[in-house]
Task: structure prediction
Amino acid sequence: MKKIIVSLALTFAVALVANAESPKKKVKALKVGDAAPAFKIKDTNGKEIDLAKLTIKGPVLVRLTCGCLGCDRELPYFQALHKAYQKEGIRLVAVFAEPDEKFAKYVKTKKLNMLYATDPKRTSWSVFGTKTMPSNFLIGKGGKVIAISKGCDPSGLIARNLGDKTATLLNTAKVDIKTQVDKNKKPVQPKK
Result:
């Protein structure tokens, strides 16, 4: 028994030393005013989404997210934001952390109205210099980061704030995303 414990302890110590000695590639966190990173990803149909090409045409909101309960409750606000400002030129690119197999069912039930891709290894998070789930990056026409929000807010306040910044960026009337979605929500029935 002592041999097993000593062996496990040595294995653990070697792993710690190896991890300490192998330098991890640090990715610089983006800040407002920075140039957007070179970002390309294939959507679930294999078509390339190229951030640089999208920002030539107009602003883009990149959302790094997942299908957890909180992000799922936040999704309708971002869908409404995209719908509200799409005619003025905004594009929403959602990158989900789920694998394709799980995501196909999610797409059908949520009726996504935006560009989307899956990234189960979360390499997109590294490109944007974040570990936070979800993270949102509003990027202006030409590729400059205009706004960043991190964290989940199922109440819709983050989406509303990003929607207001989008309206200002596009020089158009603000749409109250939060009120619009909240009035269409079905009331939650109490459990019996």
